[in-house]
Amino acid sequence: MSEELKGRVAIVTGATRGIGYAIAERLAHEGSQIAFCGTKQETVSSAVERLSAISAAYGEVADVSNYADVKRFVRNVQTRFGRVNTLVNNAGAGVFRPVAELTPAEWDRMISLNLSGAYYCSHEVLPILREEGGGDVINISSLAGRNPFAGGAGYN
Q1: At what angle do helices 41-52 and 18-29 cross, to 10 degrees?
Q2: What CA–CA distance (Å, rounded) separates 30 from 72?
Q3: DSSP state, residue 55
Q4: How far apart are the first and last CA of the chain?
Q5: In this predicted structure, what is the pLDDT of residue 78?
Q6: Where are the alpha helices (DSSP H) in 31-84?
Q7: How far apart are CA 20 and CA 148, in angstroms?
Q8: Sheet holding 57-61: strands in order across?
Q9: What pTM does this model have?
Q10: Are the C-beta atoms of residues 23 and 131 closer than 8 Å to each other?
Q11: 78: Cβ–Cβ under 8 A, 6 or more apart, which residues?
Q12: What 8-state DSSP symbol labels residue 60?
């Protein structure tokens, strides 16, 4: 357990599975209290159950591409834990097709989730971190941003 992370409150977006879950699980093992959101109640409930076996964990259904959802979620985390010390912007998705075959709805969803979601979460958490005297914001991104590939223009 890390003395530096013990007792901290960490929000991890996209933590119901994959890399986000692994990040949340590691932070929990290091002593952090975990808060996260997801878009499906069943995956949120499952992740809460697994993470609660390690540390205090809170999850709720919220879509980070929806500003009202983010505001509600961050307010609920602050109410539940009394503070926020870390934000890990991890939620993201990709559709991999040539631009000519990518629909405007798919483009909008990627931009809303991958870019606006990180902005919305940061926008809501940064004032809390200032009140707390500091904290960390970590933005997870894909290597595709540095190593583009055919069929990934919307994601790259």
Answers
A1: 30
A2: 27
A3: S
A4: 36
A5: 96
A6: 41-52, 67-81
A7: 23
A8: 57-61, 33-38, 9-13, 86-89, 136-139
A9: 0.92
A10: no
A11: 84, 128
A12: E
One-letter amino acid for residue 24 of the chain = A
d(C-alpha 49, C-alpha 62), whole Å? 18
Catalytic residues: 155
Task: Kindly report, residue by residue over 37-86, the tens digit of the pLDDT.
Answer: 999 999 999 999 999 999 999 999 999 999 999 999 999 999 999 999 99
User: DSSP class of residue 4?
Assistant: T
Long-range contacts of 122-131 (CB under 8 A, 24+ apart): 122/87, 122/89, 124/70, 124/71, 124/74, 125/11, 125/74, 125/84, 125/87, 128/74, 128/78, 128/83, 128/84, 129/84, 129/85, 129/87
**Rounded to whole angstroms, how far apart are CA atoms 156 and 153?**
5
